[in-house]
Amino acid sequence: MSAEEDFEQVGAELADLGVRVSSMMGRPALKDHAGKVFASLQRDQAMVFRLVEGTPEHTAALALPGASLFDPSGKGREVKDWVVVPHSSVEQWTDLAEAAHSRPR
Fold this sequence. Notes:
alpha+beta, six-stranded antiparallel β-sheet
């Protein structure tokens, strides 16, 4: 499947938790019941997740091949709580999205 289809599938799998597929800054995003974004699909077909720095999920996500901290500006200003996970690790996306959803903001 394409990254877009996989993203939609993750949203569908978490719908029972009150998750809805929406958008943020023109990109597909997953929002919780309060409308807060906790995951988003990026232009490079990777998904970015809000995983609190220092948690086991954050550490595990960064250990995936090709994963990195999110740098939305592209100027070396990483956002430490957000991890970019490439489409090559799509089998982890649902678990990471669930972990991102369950963390307090």
